[in-house]
């Protein structure tokens, strides 16, 4: 394995001070799998006390510590490198972080790996010897594309590991070994995942969504009955087979997110875009009739999304809500050969929330997620959009009339002013000039 020159200097200093250096965790796994990228390097240092390790690191830069109980240190001049002492962990509560940590610089390697979650994450790289130590068959599991837990007892102590398996399944296209799969099912059945924070759930779901084939992760969660209610409801929501030959809404959603994974890099906000594709049809269980009609599922989806609390950022929520609301509009406009005015009105509705480009992308993914799409329909849609963009642009036109204009014209500064401004803008889109708009509004409303 290759490391930064400064990192090697620090490693050599640790060795000269009586310590021993092992590289552990995901970076070793990725090395074996041939995955390139900027990864965090987890360094485990044996045979030194907390203070001895601190003193060694301090000779190379400023040391940041993260609590003596965890014995984790970082150098400000060596980002992405974490230095830690070997430790044992004991579960003390139901939450993900409820552990008692016991530092033991002389801990044996056999015992040290028992706190690792999966065999592929239990690999250790011996820096001095320049070789990988594999004590539980992690390399073979990687070659066979199998996800296997290291220790049944210690694995079950951390419910977050179930979601971590889901994102590994999606990222690496691997299968979960039978005993590990059953263990995950039992942990879900015992409601152990209920104690995870929404921040941790959001983080793991986001990793699934950013994988090459995110459907694999959610299919795993479905298999172990760990889907949240707003996704689980999609399984039992049928669709008209003449429109959706792929079957129920969950199948459709999985096809959509896999297509979206191929185009997310073209969007303004790839992660927000993927969340939008995952949630675009969450309103269908609310409104779908026994015949399979789902009129108004976009509006219903916006309401359901209000209860999806794991997404907390305001701008992200606004983006996703807008995408849910308007994900069908462009396709419907193309099919109905809608007038320019409808297109211009849509640009105004999404203005400042979602770009036309991102809305086009989700429209295409939604269309392609139907199992079978006629090429003529898809080409006709792209042709329709290209014509509108060429003639009318891809952004909302700036308003000719603002609030000050209305106040000068005699309108009151009250709640009604916003409504009048919206009417003024719509008249503008219809091609009416500024003076005629003001005259029309004056005539309609009491100026007081």
Automatic annotation (TrEMBL):
Alphabetical list of PROSITE patterns matching this protein: PROKAR_LIPOPROTEIN
One BP annotation, GO: tRNA processing
tRNA processing as UniProt keyword: yes
Top-rank taxon: Bacteria
Limits of the HD/PDEase domain: 245-380
UniProt keyword list: ATP-binding, Magnesium, Metal-binding, Nucleotide-binding, Nucleotidyltransferase, RNA repair, RNA-binding, Transferase, tRNA processing
Xref: SUPFAM superfamilies: Nucleotidyltransferase, Poly A polymerase C-terminal region-like
Stored Gene3D superfamilies: Beta Polymerase, domain 2, cca-adding enzyme, domain 2
Keyword rRNA-binding (UniProt): no
Pfam family, one: PolyA_pol
A molecular function (GO) term: nucleotidyltransferase activity
Cofactor dependency: Mg(2+)
Listed name of the protein: tRNA nucleotidyltransferase (CCA-adding enzyme)
């Amino acid at each position: 394995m290759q490391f930064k020159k400064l990192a090697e200097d620090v490693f050599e200093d640790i060795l000269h001070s009586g310590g021993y250096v092992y590289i552990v965790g995901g970076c070793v796994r990725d090395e074996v799998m041939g995955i390139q990228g900027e990864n965090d390097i987890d360094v485990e240092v044996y045979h030194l006390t907390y203070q001895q390790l601190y003193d060694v690191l301090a000779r190379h830069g400023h040391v940041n510590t993260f609590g003596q109980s965890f014995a984790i240190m970082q150098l400000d001049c060596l980002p992405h490198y974490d230095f830690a002492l070997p430790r044992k962990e004991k579960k003390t509560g139901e939450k993900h972080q409820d552990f008692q940590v016991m530092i033991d610089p002389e801990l044996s390697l056999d015992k040290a790996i028992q706190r690792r979650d999966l065999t592929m994450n239990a690999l250790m790289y011996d820096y001095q010897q320049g070789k990988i130590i594999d004590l539980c068959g992690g390399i073979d599991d990687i070659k066979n594309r199998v996800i296997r837990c290291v220790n049944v007892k210690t694995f079950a102590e951390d419910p977050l590991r179930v979601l971590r398996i889901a994102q590994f399944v999606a990222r690496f296209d691997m299968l979960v070994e039978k005993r590990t799969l059953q263990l995950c099912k039992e942990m879900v059945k015992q409601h152990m995942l209920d104690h995870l924070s929404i921040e941790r759930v959001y983080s793991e779901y986001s990793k699934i969504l950013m994988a090459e084939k995110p459907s694999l992760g959610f299919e795993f969660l479905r298999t172990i009955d760990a889907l949240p209610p707003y996704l689980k409801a999609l399984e039992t929501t049928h669709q008209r087979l003449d429109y959706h030959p792929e079957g129920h809404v969950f199948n459709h959603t999985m096809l959509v997110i896999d297509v979206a994974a191929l185009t997310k890099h073209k969007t303004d906000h790839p992660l927000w875009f993927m969340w939008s594709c995952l949630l675009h049809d969450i309103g269908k269980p609310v409104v779908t009739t026994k015949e399979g009609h789902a009129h108004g599922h976009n509006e219903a989806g916006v309401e359901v999304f209000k209860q999806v609390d794991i997404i907390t950022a305001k701008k992200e929520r606004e983006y996703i809500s807008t995408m849910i609301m308007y994900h069908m509009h462009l396709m419907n406009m193309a099919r109905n050969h809608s007038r320019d005015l409808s297109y211009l009105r849509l640009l105004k509705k999404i203005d400042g929330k979602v770009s036309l480009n991102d809305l086009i992308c989700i429209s295409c993914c939604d269309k392609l997620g139907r199992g079978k799409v006629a090429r003529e329909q898809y080409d006709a849609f792209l042709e329709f959009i290209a014509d509108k963009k060429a003639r009318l642009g891809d952004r909302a036109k700036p308003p000719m009339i603002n609030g000050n204009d209305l106040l000068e014209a005699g309108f009151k500064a009250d709640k009604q002013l916003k409504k009048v401004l919206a009417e003024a803008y719509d008249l503008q889109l219809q091609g009416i000039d500024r003076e005629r708009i003001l005259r029309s509004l004056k005539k309609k409303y009491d100026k007081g």
